[in-house]
Design brief:
Length: 360
């Protein structure tokens, strides 16, 4: 499902953006501050419904405007394409459309356009908090288990209601009303995460061996409740602690993925450049798995590929990208980032002061 065209109106520094993309390799180059990252960000917003730079939508609006639009055409078979778009205004909020009709949820955009991003803060997948790694696993679950979005809604709904009851000092019988839904959806999410990690791990190990000599890698998933207990047991046994803290302290919302190198946290062992390469291996494994399972063409965004990498690191990373079978949009300071040998079709875009010019 490659993205064959991209447009925006009053998005970031762009008054108008209208480009046609290669289904394989696209390089966006220009000086710092020219709008390269905003180009990639528009694609991320179209596929994710949110930016990889901020959780807020107002900063995405060009100065002086009241809202923004991002839109594009996604191929869905020979000679067929689906229009899709997202708009936001201060008065109307967010609206997503697919095929000219209102989307039922932002998640529909993500199913149509599976986007993954490697950017300046991607090292936080290794060095940041547990939420980064939960989001990582849940991206894979979302694009493989198509009922997972509904399961997450059930879990979040039950969790929010249970926590609200805990905060207002509800009786144990009131609190336990939400336990069944919480446990049923939570254990399903946990099982899916474990399955996806098992699927990803061989690919991650292979990519790490190719990209970086970092030592022995161990990935260890922790559910978010004590080992040897079911989630139901943990919830039941922990109600006194939950009442004390006013929140549910067991469940997949407290899970983590330990990333260890030679038995120690990778964040302690690795340089920033090595963390970037390890994060790339994690992300690339997801892209490859989504392509194999869903028989689709995921879209990989790589912002400032050469940042914090030496020449050998850039060469290895670029070569690995060529093996993914993904559509790639990569940003660079200069037009010297050559696509891998496997790439047949390349398009170049020069960005300067919020204007984009397709290069021959």
């Amino acid at each position: 499902m490659p993205l064959v065209s991209l447009g925006s109106r009053t998005f970031r520094c762009f008054q108008h953006l209208d480009v046609e993309l290669s289904e394989q390799w696209n390089c966006v180059f220009g000086q710092n501050g020219s709008g390269k990252t905003s180009f990639l960000e528009a694609i991320a917003v179209l596929g994710h419904g949110r930016s990889f730079r901020t959780n807020l939508r107002k900063p995405l609006v060009k100065a002086g405007a009241s809202g923004f639009q991002v839109f594009g055409q996604v191929t869905c078979g020979p000679g067929r394409a689906w229009p899709m778009g997202l708009s936001w205004t201060t008065s109307q909020g967010v609206e997503a459309r697919i095929g000219g009709q209102p989307a039922r949820s932002i998640g529909e955009l993500a199913h149509r356009l599976p986007v993954q991003v490697l950017h300046s803060r991607s090292h936080e997948l290794v060095s940041g908090g547990p939420a980064e790694r939960r989001r990582y696993l849940d991206w894979s679950v979302f694009h493989v288990e198509h009922t997972s979005h509904a399961a997450w809604r059930r879990f979040r709904g039950a969790l929010d209601q249970r926590n609200a009851c805990l905060r207002r000092g509800g009786r144990p019988s009131e609190i336990r009303v939400w336990d069944h839904s919480l446990v049923e959806a939570g254990e399903l999410i946990d099982r899916w995460r474990r399955q996806q990690l098992a699927e990803l791990q061989p690919k991650i190990e292979s990519l790490v061996a190719h990209l970086a000599n970092i030592g022995s890698l161990t990935l260890r998933y922790r559910s978010g409740w004590p080992d040897g207990q079911s989630l139901g047991e943990a919830i039941s046994n922990g109600i006194a602690v939950d009442v004390r803290y006013g929140q549910t302290r067991s469940g997949p919302h407290r899970a983590d993925l330990d990333i260890l190198v030679d038995g120690r946290p990778a964040a302690e062992r690795l340089s920033r450049g090595q963390q970037k390469l390890l994060s790339a291996a994690l992300v690339f494994a997801q892209v490859a798995t989504a392509r194999e399972v869903n028989q689709c063409t995921p879209l990989l965004l790589v912002d400032d590929l050469s940042s914090e990498l030496d020449e050998e690191g850039v060469i290895r990373l670029t070569a690995a990208m060529g093996q993914l079978g993904a559509q790639i949009v990569v940003s660079s300071l200069r037009r010297d980032l050559h696509p891998p040998a496997e790439i047949d079709t390349t398009r170049w875009f020069h960005v300067e002061h919020g204007h984009v010019k397709a290069m021959i």
